[in-house]
Amino acid sequence: MEIDEARWLKLEPRSGETLRGALERNLRDAIRDGALRDGVRLPSSRALAQALGVSRGVVSDAYGQLEAQGFLNTRARAAPVVAMVTRSDPDHREPEQTTRAPRYDLTPTTPDVTLFPLARWLASAQHAARRASTATLDYREPRGERALRDALADHLGRTRGVIAEPEQIVVVQGTAQGVYVILRILQARGASRVAVEDPSHTTQHERIRALGLELVPQPVDDDGLVVDDLDANAVLVTPAHQFPTGSVLSGERRRDLLAWSRATRGLIVEDDYDAEFRYDREPVRALQGVAPDHVVQLGTVSKTLAPALRLGWLVTPPALAEEAERTKRLLDDFSPALDQLTLAELLTRGHYDRHVRRARTVYRGRRDRMLAALEKHLPELTVEGVAAGVHLLLRLPRGVDDRAIADAARVAGIGVPALSAFRIRPSDESGLVIGYGRLHESAVAPAMRALAKLIRARLALVDVQE
Fold first, then answer.
1. Which of 32, 122, 143, 274 has a CA positioned 20 to 30 A from the CA of residue 229?
2. Domain locations in the chain?
3. At a CB cut-off of 8 Å and minimum separation 6, what does 258 contact?
4. Which CATH class is domain 1-98?
5. 3-state DSSP: the chain helix, strand, coil percent, rounded to 5?
6. Which of 409, 378, 410, 414 lies closest to 396, judged by CA?
7. For the whole prediction, is pTM greater than 0.70?
8. What is the pLDDT of residues 35-64, one digit of tens each?
């Protein structure tokens, strides 16, 4: 950052104060108060002297004093730069705490954004913008750009077996808004109970509770969601790859869930968040394709492209399409049109599929490396979850405090969450949900070695205490 002018400086010496002293005080106060932030490049001594109408020596002396006091950094033949200093705080508030990034980021919900096809995205954006009419820059349809909805209907039918007309698709700003739209519709229809998988992503729990709906935890086992005794107006599920256990909803459970929906008129919300990343076989067909009148299919490019794009979609039953459109309009009118057209360009020209294939190869390689490292360093522990997505579940002995291990890992520079952090009801099941989306291939082995060392130390401590 650089200051080109100094009009804000008022050089008004106090009684008995020299011009140099006044300039030094003025600059020091500006740095302390935050008007001049860390890294700001000040004018050269010649330029500032000319702007203030003083000699260059006055400015050079003031700069020299401020450097000696630690307020400026200077080097030969370069303008001074404001140094990092402790700011004054008129409200006497505690300084904002910053979180240091972990040395090994094993977050299970994040993709590798460095894989984002930036050049292809920019080229597609330029192509889409040139072809778009000026009306594209005006207020747009809440359901989304027709070009994207057409492309999504074709893509989802081909890759996920989804049955949908473009009129059933509503473009939303990621999974978060998609879930919120559905919850608002359920609330308006008088629903009071929404079931979720237990364990599941905690942000879904927060959204349900924030709208005053009752959160109903439904257990999960190796066959996915347990449908027995399901008592709710709607259920949010991840059938293709359950988060965080990594199980897949079995055929029998799928039939049971669809039968429940038909018998109770309960709505199934299918979060298809990472179904495109299956490494050992083709992913199971979307539930929506089997019962399109009973299932809302929720999709996103947050895992395949980047979360910052905020592009997702709802494929609604025909009976809910107008309500979804109306709710979207009340929330924010519509999603960014040019970004939608860019994604449509990627889909229709095959660039999206090629990128997904490339990313799938990368993630599969990282998963294979992680499995090999865990087998080498922690062979007595079980790894669970199908070969899919960007995370796996490392089971710990029952009763072990997995949050304590996650806390210790954080202190050691390893960011990995505990399985219990995603639970609603207490359980003696223990584990770590390990992500490999952001872990470069070269870091997999040392990360698993460091994690294994920590886990062994914690388990040994538990044994001694027992």
1. 274
2. 1-98, 116-353, 360-465
3. 268, 287, 290, 291, 294
4. mainly alpha
5. 45, 15, 40
6. 378
7. yes
8. 888 888 888 888 888 888 889 888 888 887
